[in-house]
Amino acid sequence: MTETVINIDTSQKKGRWIARLGVALFTGPIWGLLGTVIGMIRAFSTLGANSDDSATALAHDISVAMYTTMIGLGLGLVGAILILVALLSSKNREPWFFSWSVSLSVFWSLVVFPYGVIVGGPIAFLFFRRRSQFERRRKA
């Protein structure tokens, strides 16, 4: 009996950890977008400076913008996988997990359109189908 309680408690902690990590990584496109904006601002500043090596500097700034986008999307995809693991395997049903996952799924769908719909749409759909499982249980 004690082993079962310890296994359930360990499983819940593991599921909570996976959910938190997944949600944190699922914000990757936000950080990638920020890096893209910073890189493009630097690129236009370089272009406006009209220096002799402006083409090389401009190419560098644009590559920084594209790398941050790629890294942000990659982290977001890993986060999406962890969110699905926490939802389907670990059965994490904390209310914050529902609200953050749905919000970030909508963000993915809008900002990384149309490809973001492929990632964000199914996750939001799964969460909405299971939304009753996330409601806090009231004490009788």
Can you walk through the features of this model?
The mean pLDDT is 87. It is built from five helices and no strands. The protein is elongated, with a radius of gyration of 20 Å. The protein has one domain. With 140 residues, the chain is mainly α. The protein is 81% helix and 0% strand.
Main attributes of the structure:
140 residues; mainly alpha; 5 helices
Number of domains: 1
Radius of gyration, in Å, reads 20 Å
Number of helices: 5
Mean pLDDT: 87
Outline of the structure:
With 140 residues, this protein is mainly alpha-helical.
SSE layout and pairing:
Blueprint: H1 2-26, H2 28-49, H3 54-88, H4 95-111, H5 115-129
Helix pairs in contact: 1-3, 1-4, 2-3, 3-5, 4-5
